Amino acid sequence: MTRLDQGGLTLRQLGPTVYLPSAVYSTGFGAVAPVVVLSATGLGASPAVAALVAGLVGVGQIGGGLPAGVLVDRFGEQRTMLAAAGLGLPALIACMLVRDVRLLAVAVFLLGITGAAWGLARHAYLTEAVRPELRARAMSTLGGVGRVGTFAGPFLGAPVVHVLGVSGAYLVAAVAVAVAATLVALLPPVPHDRPHASTPGHPGLWSVLRENARTLRTLGSAILLVGALRAARQTILPLWGVGLGLSPATIGIIYGISGGVDMLLFYPAGRLMDRHGRKWAAVPAMALLGLAHALLPLAGGAAGLTVIGLIMGVGNGLSAGLVMTIGADVSPAAGRARFLGAWRMCSDLGNGGGPLLIGAVTAAASLTAAAVTVAGAGALAAVLLGRWVPSGWASRSSRQHRDHRDSQPEPGVGAAPGRHGGTEPG
User: Fold this and answer.
1) What is the secondary structure of 283-309 as a DSSP string?
2) Could you give the 3-state DSSP secondary structure of residue 190?
3) Which fold has domain 198-419?
């Protein structure tokens, strides 16, 4: 197997050991996503409490980002993913067997933590293993297979749920996690360009956060908005359909069409970022998502909402792998996994905050006001990404990789915009 110091791995080489386990893992958790609320209500929880239990997945992801980065830095990607699977399996079994909604809440929270650890380890692994000129395509493909798995999971779980009840979805997820963990054990070794956590002088978590505070404050803020926009579209599109009086089936079809367009664009988005730079995908993606939310008040029926859903799908598809790619670009060689843990937390905070923003503005004013607010967030995200994402990174990375193929891989544009000889963005 080609090693990193000989040029890095290609997408084809990564397929069986990276993308296949990710697809299997995402499929399992896609099967679980629709039934957590049903499990909670089945245990006597009110709709509000059931929604809170389902939201604990996101809380677990937010809380698990930084610890996952420390684990990856100390024990490596492979062991962290196996540990995540080892924690995820009993959590899924608990979801099947518990008879108290409080215990279900704990198990769901643990599922969020395992998801954060798995995702962070996979991100760090690809950052180290893939050829620099293929980085965006590698990351967007990882995001794409995850979306495909999440989309397919409910369909694969439905027949089992029909036979076994709600617990069947957790059984499907448990099998998927076990299979994914087995595949992870086949990962090729990755020669890291970062020092090991046990190396004298290796930076600790707080040292990494201090040294990269500027990046997290600037680009991290933009990434938080990206996460909020992505999550907001998943909430506001169905709500707007309900407000228009559309049937659940019609809303589901519109949502599915939007998701289908989204899934078709993950590889073209990565290719665009690799060939022309990250801004060429980042800025249009956020502008389109913002525009789609701004157009929602003009949607007078199913046709108009379908058009807006298509625009959302294109915008979200263009952003496939964007967060992981930029995070890999700006991550420092020393303490990289710890930095990526903080980076992931920025995105997860946005993912959790998007629906909360919609709910708060809707409660205080109206759903129209919420749509306009999210549209403004999209415009702001486009401006911040246009300012802080380094220009021409893709071509510079590819050229330096060719010139220094036998030396250490380029660690990215630096711990903060403008470092390591990079051009100050803006």
Assistant:
1) HHHHHHHHHHHHHGGG--SHHHHHHHH
2) coil
3) Growth Hormone; Chain: A; (1.20.1250)
Q: What is the spatial distance between Cα 309 and Cα 258, in angstroms, rounded to a whole number?
A: 5
Contact 414, 422 (CB under 8 A): yes
Amino acid at 235: T
Minimal CA–CA distance to 305: which of 347, 264, 359, 244? 244
Domain 1-185 class in CATH = mainly alpha
Structure tokens at 115: 């998801």
Give residue-wise pLDDT tens across range 280-295.
Answer: 999 999 999 999 999 9
Alpha carbons 263 and 274: distance in angstroms, whole number: 18
> Token pair for residue 366?
């109206």
- Which residue's structure tokens are 């090693």? 3
Backbone φ and ψ of 9, nearest 5°: -90, 150
Quick one: which of 173, 208, 243 has its CA closest to 70?
208
pLDDT digits (tens, 9 = 90+) for 300-332: 899 999 999 999 999 999 999 999 999 999 988
Any residues with CB less than 8 A from the CB of 35 and at least 6 apart, and which?
157, 161, 166, 169, 170
| C-alpha–C-alpha distance, residues 268 and 318, integer Å | 8
Distance of alpha carbon 75 from alpha carbon 367, whole angstroms: 46
Task: Give the Cα separation of 329 and 13 in Å (integer).
Answer: 21
Domains 1-185 and 198-419 share a fold: yes
Question: CA 311, CA 285: separation in Å to the nearest integer?
Answer: 10
Residue 324, both tokens? 């992981």
Task: Write the pLDDT tens digit of every residue in 155-164.
Answer: 888 888 888 8
In one letter, which amino acid is 204?
A: G
